[in-house]
Amino acid sequence: MSCKVTLLARGGMNFAMEKFHASAKEGDRVDGANYAFVVDHLPSGKRVVYDLGIHSNSEVYTPMSRGQFPLFTPKSPAEPIDKVIYDFDRKPVDYVIFSHSHWYVIHNAG
Question: In this predicted structure, what is the pLDDT of residue 43?
Fold first, then answer.
């Protein structure tokens, strides 16, 4: 095995379905999970975090992003991702890779 992958549950969102599906009725909503992954490359000892998930504090998002909340209501995780990763095994992160640039994935990685 050259990599070890760990799944981190990172909250989720509640979606207004009428914006996504033609047969949805007004008021129909569905929950969606959001994840991040810790990937440890064992031969090199490098650690990658793939996506950051929903932030635990919705105030970090821009006003424009927060304006989307009626359509995509975030369900924040209890702990910030840096604390989750640190508490996991206290190894530093070498790289953060974003799968895409949607507002709920891109937030302050510092």
Answer: 96
Model pTM score:
0.69
End-to-end CA distance of the chain: 30
CA–CA dist 16, 20 (Å, integer): 8
What is the set of domains in the chain, with CATH numbers? 3-97 (3.60.15.10)
How is residue 41 written in tokens? 């490359």
Residue-wise pLDDT tens digits, 43-68: 999 999 888 777 777 777 778 777 77
Q: How far is CA 57 from CA 1, 45, 64, 106, in A?
A: 36, 31, 16, 13
Q: Are 48 and 41 in contact (CB under 8 A)?
A: yes
46 phi and psi, to 5 degrees? -80, 150
Q: CB-based contacts of 44: which residues, under 8 Å, 6+ apart?
A: none
